[in-house]
Amino acid sequence: MLGTPSRNRIAERREGVRREILDAAWSQAREVGLANITLRDIAREVGMQPPSLYSHFDSKNAIYNAMYAEAWLAYESCSAAELDPLPEHPRVAIQRIARVFFDFAVADLARHQLMNQRTIPGFEPTADAYAPAVRVLEHGAALVRSLGITDPADFDIWVSLIGGLIDQQLANDPGGDRFSRLLERAIDMWADAAGVPKHSPAATRAARKN
Amino acid sequence: MLGTPSRNRIAERREGVRREILDAAWSQAREVGLANITLRDIAREVGMQPPSLYSHFDSKNAIYNAMYAEAWLAYESCSAAELDPLPEHPRVAIQRIARVFFDFAVADLARHQLMNQRTIPGFEPTADAYAPAVRVLEHGAALVRSLGITDPADFDIWVSLIGGLIDQQLANDPGGDRFSRLLERAIDMWADAAGVPKHSPAATRAARKN
DNA sequence: GTCTATACTGTGATAGAC
DNA sequence: GTCTATCACAGTATAGAC
Q1: A160 with B192: Cβ contact below 8 A
Q2: Is this structure's pTM higher than 0.85?
Q3: What is the chain B residue with the closest CA to A194?
Q4: How far, in Å, is the CA of A55 from the C1' of nucleotide C15?
Q5: Does the pLDDT value for residue B191 go beyond 80?
Q6: Per-position DSSP letters for B64-77, written without gaps between them
Q7: pLDDT tens column, B92-110
Q8: Are both A3 and A85 inside the same structural domain?
Q9: CA–CA distances in Å: residue B175 to residues A160, B35, B181
Q10: How far apart are CA B132 and CA B114, in angstroms?
Q11: Based on the domain organization, do A3 and A96 belong to the same domain?
Q12: What is the pLDDT of residue B13?
């Protein structure tokens, strides 16, 4: 058995190559745009011949697919870190969730295009890759419900509002904060309409006693 | 001079060919997706050889450019028709503008992608083609100002809200009305926050007398 | 001026030797 | 698993017939 790498070692190495390919794909995407990456450039950055990529991914779209899953998993752990503990005050909580999502999206145009827009012509994520995305959305919906928002229409409007501001920010003021500045105000507007309490839970409890 | 077509005839014919090419491009875009049209398919639909397209357009992006201008011009005349006369009641007016834009966008995915998203990799409209778009936006801003909304931030939020609902409708419920149904409610929410009068101008005038 | 014929470059993808 | 060789197809360019 000496000199024969174990199954684990082989799997590790293989996983390492996949990582290198994906890292190269991300760096290319940020450099030339998500839609403009080429297998040749990725291969060159990794240090192999273009067809060799096919030993690790079935197609270019399979690379996009892995990147898609990766992006949503990254957001999932980012939000887990940033939104725990969730502020007790519903207004503050809803603002915070919106802000975390907004900033994550705006921080990386290529990633946002992949996660939230259908900007790659033939690409659609597989069910596996899509799973984290629906998990995040469902988690957000549950959080909003826990704040007393029962009408699903309110959740849909909340999502649309945040997404709309993100798109405008990236399209019409990239690198700036023209729309980012408006997020709190817009969410507050929504919270007023949806009936999110303006005061803290403690104040709500105190008021209820009267 | 007999048998020699006049300058006008030639220009007309030339313009006719341009129209045929653009029509073919639109029909292809709706069939296979905006980003997936090819010069070969366009040429075949028009009945000429692919390189002949270059007698009429400098490049594929020049075709996109003409389509872009055309789409915004189409919206400009659509909105002129649908929004004249603009309802006197500010709430009704703001709802109507939003609805006209929403329906125009949702009616044609390819057109919306071209007008409002940066979905074509290398394409950016020229200043000429962009002009109708800024005209429409400025016209919308002026309309909103005329309704008493003086803070530009309110206009930005209004635009983001409509755009966000359009994107969600097209991405998550194409052909349906899940988000279309929410437009009135969302705009009303915005109008409340922006201070658009709830009652008619006549009622406002009457109230002011007290 | 316009169209045809042909070719060039770059793309994703495949086959088979090692 | 990686390589070399090659394919099919895209957008693009140009030379030359009409």
Answers
A1: no
A2: yes
A3: B189
A4: 14
A5: yes
A6: HHHHHHHHHHHHHH
A7: 999 999 999 999 999 999 9
A8: no
A9: 17, 20, 13
A10: 14
A11: no
A12: 80
Q: Is the pLDDT of residue A210 over 60?
A: no
Of the listed ranges A197-206, B94-103, B110-119, the least confidently predicted one is: A197-206
Residue B10, nucleotide of least CA–C1' distance = C1
Is B93 in the same domain as B166?
yes
Residues A86, A110 within the same domain: yes
CATH number at residue A83: 1.10.357.10
Please tell me which of the candidates A121, A163, A192 has its beta carbon nearest to residue B164. A163
The helix/strand/coil state of A197 is: coil
Q: Do residues B7 and B75 both lie within one domain?
A: no
State whether B24 and B78 are in the same domain: no
Please give the interface size between A and B, counted as residue pairs whose CB atoms are below 8 Å apart.
95
Q: What is the distance between the alpha carbons of residues B188 and A193, in angstroms, rounded to a whole number?
A: 9
Tell which phi-psi region holds residue B195, choosing left (phi > 0), alpha (psi between -120 and 50) or beta: left
Domain edge (last residue) among B57, B82, B105? B57
Q: Given B57, B76, B95, which residue is the final one in a domain? A: B57
Domain count, chain A: 2
Nearest beta carbon to residue A121 from set B33, B164, B168: B33
Q: What protein residues sit with their CB closer than 7 Å to strand C?
A: A 37-41, 50-51, 54, 58-61; B 10, 14, 17, 48-52, 55-56
User: Quick one: average pLDDT of B151-180?
Assistant: 97
Query: Are A73 and A135 members of one domain?
Result: yes
The single-letter DSSP state of residue B61 is H
Measure B46 CA to nearest chain A CA, in Å: 24
- For B178, the token pair is 């899940």
Would you say residue B210 lies in a domain?
no
A8 to chain B, closest Cα gap in Å:
41
Q: Are residues A135 and A163 in the same domain?
A: yes
Is the CA virtual torsion B111, B116, B120, B126 positive or negative? Answer: positive
The domain in which residue B26 lies consists of: 1-57
pLDDT band at B198 (very low <50, low <70, confident <90, very high): confident
Instruction: State the pLDDT at residue A116.
Output: 96
Contact between chains at B160 and A179 (C-beta distance less than 8 A): yes
The alpha-carbon gap from B155 to the nearest alpha carbon of chain A, in Å, equals: 11
Decide if A189 and B185 are in contact by the 8 Å CB cutoff. no
- Please indicate if any CB of chain A lies within 8 Å of the CB of B179: yes
B17 is a domain residue = yes
